[in-house]
Amino acid sequence: MVLPGQETLGRRIARLRKERGYTQVELAEKIGIIQVLISDYERDKLRPHPEVIVRFAHALNVTTDELLGLTVSPTAGTKPSLKTLRRLNRIENLPPSQQKALFKTIDNFLKGAEKE
């Protein structure tokens, strides 16, 4: 039974996967299972075997205790996600004029968001 406000293992797996910028297919490939199982684990339809928990932890770069919700990483949420890093790499490959235009757009967006 999950108390209100507590994150289930499945939800934690989904959150960590998304924070790291992986799709279900990518995570499945990393740990050597099929995508349907990732979906079932994330929806708490299945409980992962201890060996699979270790593989999830390794693939998501967390300890098994963190994955199981027993501890919280002191650096949780401080690193950019893989998804963000992929976008930054693509921006780095743009010509300088396009980078400048993109950064101007981003800066204007952030200024507007700060006013809200």
Describe the structure concisely for a colleague.
The chain is mainly alpha-helical. The protein is built from seven helices and no strands. It has two domains: 9-68, 434 Repressor (Amino-terminal Domain), CATH 1.10.260.40; 82-115.
Low-confidence spans: none
Could you tell me the mean pLDDT?
87
The biggest sheet, with number of strands, parallel, antiparallel or mixed sense and barrel status, is: none
In the residues, how many domains can be counted? 2
Which superfamily, in CATH terms, is the homologous superfamily of the largest domain? lambda repressor-like DNA-binding domains
Annotated CATH topology of the largest domain? 434 Repressor (Amino-terminal Domain)
Label the overall shape. elongated
Compute the separation of the termini in Å.
39 Å
Q: Label the CATH architecture of the largest domain.
A: Orthogonal Bundle
User: Approximately how much helix is present in the residues?
Assistant: 55-70%
The beta-strand count equals: 0
Strand content: under 5%
- Secondary structure class reads mainly alpha
